[in-house]
Amino acid sequence: MGGIEQKYIQEAFDTNWIAPLGANVDGFEQELASYVNIKAASATSSGTGAIHLALDLLGVQAGDTVFCSTLTFIASANPILYLGATPVFIDSEEITWNMSPQALEQALKEAKENNTLPKAVIIVNLYGQSARIDELMALCNEYNVPVIEDAAESLGSLYKGKHSGTFGKLGIYSFNGNKIITTSGGGMLVSDDEQLISYSRFLATQARDAAKHYQHSVIGYNYRMSNIVAGIGRGQLEVLDERVAQKRAIFERYESAFANVDGILMMPELEETFSNRWLSTMTLDPEKIKVTPYELIDLLAEANIEARPVWKPLHIQPLFEGCEFYPHSDKKIVSEELFAKGICLPSDTKMTIEEQQYVIDVVLNNI
Ligand SMILES: *Cc1c(COP(=O)(O)O)cnc(C)c1O
Predict the structure, then answer these.
(1) Which of 69, 129, 153, 311 should be mutated for ligand 1, with most atoms under 8 A from CB?
(2) How far is the CA of 76 from the centre of ligand 1 (A)?
(3) What is the residue with the minimal CA distance to atom 6 of ligand 1?
(4) DSSP category for residue 225
(5) pLDDT score recorded for residue 179
(6) How many angstroms is it from 313 CA to the middle of ligand 1?
(7) How far is the CA of 169 from the centre of ligand 1 (A)?
(8) What is the pLDDT, as a whole number, of residue 22?
(9) The predicted structure's pLDDT at residue 17
């Protein structure tokens, strides 16, 4: 917490406006929309809920297909299943670790031929890194498929000067406890289409028709953010730039410490982009480094340091067994390679320089 959150929560208490919605929710939506420079935003109870709403708004139904990045957290794709639709997973490419335009092109081409074009494409911006937005958007526009940008991990990142999360028809952010700013739990759905966002608010509050009695014509959800939680979000938004600067400094310290180690490659940063460096992640080249990422994670754990593997690709998750998958090329499955070689290092902004140096020393002593 930055310290200012309490002020907004106190306001909610002082006005006795605790219940869902209220001044903090309106304020948080407007302030976030203005921060990322988009026309409209709707605060939700989670990022996952925001993805669910986004898919519903785009008319995804049972029997439809939705394309999704494979190298991501499960929450990017679970809402596809909530709606009874079928995910098709798209591989990563090397520089961004995000969706491969090459694989997407192949998938769209085949879908078009089979008359099974997806209802939406979910593009994820992993660990703060922007996907190759221009190439991916050009393909989706060519095939007329709307994009949902999963920017749960990339709030504050820029692609060619424009905010991550604002490129698709709809974008989502998450304020879960582990994200760059948090409200304890929560999310945001954003779009330049104000009507769509306005309709999302209707769907997120049980889709109650305009009648005196309780009347409902479509399926709704209980997905709105509470006024208390939104108060935390308003305070957190004020420290977002500071958090991004801290995260980048953490990344840069790792980068310079490992610069001379042959076989460690920090996650690259795509040219003309600015990553929030939500997590400092790197890959270990198995031909040059004697420990595997899993062994290193265990060795770090013995030194009381928590590190993690990178996300396990969704196309090899038991839950998605049998789902279609498009690799980067015939010869190469980039996401599986990143999964085998990648490791996420401690990246918390509360970590002191001494603590980070300890992590660096333990890594250097064990590779
Ligand atoms: C955290 C996360 C989500 C889900 O957000 P919640 O607020 O936790 O529901 C979705 N996608 C990605 C890539 C995430 O990291």
Answers:
(1) 153
(2) 7
(3) 47
(4) P
(5) 97
(6) 15
(7) 18
(8) 87
(9) 83
Residues acting as catalytic residues: 179
**What is the spatial distance between Cα 146 and Cα 96, in angstroms, rounded to a whole number?**
21
Give all domains of the chain, ordered by start, each with its CATH number.
5-237 (3.40.640.10), 241-366 (3.90.1150.10)
Residue nearest atom 14 of ligand 1, based on CA coordinates: 152
User: Token pair of 271, please?
Assistant: 């040219």
Rounded to two decimals, the pTM is 0.97
- 3-class SS of residue 148: strand
Q: Ligand 1 — pocket residues by CB below 6 A?
A: 46-48, 72-73, 75-76, 124, 150, 152-153, 174, 176, 187
Atom of ligand 1 nearest to the CA of 124: 13
Atom 5, ligand 1: residue with shortest CA distance: 47
CB atoms closer than 10 angstroms to residue 352: 8
Residue ranges in the chain whose pLDDT is less than 50: none
Pair 3, 236: CB distance under 8 Å: no
Gap from CA of 342 to ligand 1 centroid (Å): 20
Going through the chain in order, the beta strands assigned E by DSSP cover 40-44, 65-69, 86-90, 120-124, 147-150, 158-159, 162-163, 170-174, 187-191, 264-266, 273-274, 280-284, 308-309, 324-326, 342-345
Q: Which of 299, 310, 315, 298 is nearest to 347 (CA)?
A: 310
Could you tell me if 42 and 188 are in contact, meaning their C-beta atoms sit under 8 angstroms apart? yes
Q: Which residue's CA is the closest to the ligand 1 atom numbered 2?
A: 152
Residue type, 42: S
What is the per-residue pLDDT for 119? Answer: 98
pLDDT at 197: 98
Pairwise CA distance, residues 108 & 223, whole Å: 32
**320: CA distance to ligand 1 center in Å?**
18
To which H or E segment does residue 49 belong?
Answer: helix 47-57
Contact 33, 40 (CB under 8 A): yes
**Residues whose CB falls within 8 Å of the CB of residue 136, separated by 6 or more in sequence, listed in order:** 99, 101, 104, 121, 123, 147
Beta bridge partners of 224: 44
| The two three-digit tokens of residue 132, written as one number | 């190759």
Q: For residue 239, what are the contacts with CB-CB under 8 A and spacing of at least 6?
A: 2, 4, 181
Residue with the smallest CA separation from ligand 1 atom 8 is: 176
